[in-house]
Amino acid sequence: MKKRKVTEFDQATEERREHILEEINEYETERDRLKHMLGKIGGRQYNRIDTVINIVFFALLIGLLVVQATFHVMSTLLSIEMGVLLVSLKIIWMIQAQERVNHFQFWVLNSIEFRVNDIDKRIRRIERAVTPAEDGK
């Protein structure tokens, strides 16, 4: 059986293969990092915590309303102030959650912009390489 001689084409193909494998590894690393970040911001665990906090706030408000309506334990003004305090705390919680989402969206858009700029640079470099070759025809 004859051994095949390694040509420049084979070397170029091998280099391209290695480059593609490197890009795939970079993609998988970035994908895993993105999954981790999504999990921290809005994953299942965060949804459970948010649901529990919503239930606690709702239960406290309903409990305060029922206790005040049936037993008149505290003054009406105090119960209204406590209700407003609970609603204010819930609004603060919602604002904080929205800020997380906004930060994540900014991070994603910044990442996309970086990729687009990188692709633009590559295209310009390819155009510069192709243009002299076309001029020589």
Characterization of this structure:
The protein is mainly alpha-helical. It folds into two domains: 1-42; 44-135. The protein is 90% helix and 0% strand. It has three helices and no strands. It has helices spanning 8-42, 44-71, 76-135. The protein is elongated, with a radius of gyration of 30 Å.
Give the proportion of residues in helices. over 70%
Distance between the termini: 42 Å
Structural class: mainly alpha
* Integer tally of domains: 2
Number of strands: 0
Helix count? 3
Radius of gyration: 30 Å
Shape: elongated
Largest beta-sheet details? none
Report the mean per-residue pLDDT as an integer.
85
What order do the SSEs take from the amino end to the carboxyl end, as H and E? HHH
How big a fraction of the residues is strand?
Answer: under 5%
Which regions contain 5 or more consecutive residues with pLDDT less than 50?
none
Q: Could you name the key traits of this structure?
A:
single chain; 137 residues; mainly alpha; 2 domains; 3 helices; 90% helix; elongated
Structure, briefly:
The chain is mainly alpha-helical.
Itemize the secondary structure elements and their pairings:
Blueprint lengths: L7 H35 L1 H28 L4 H60 L2
Helix pairs in contact: 1-2, 1-3, 2-3
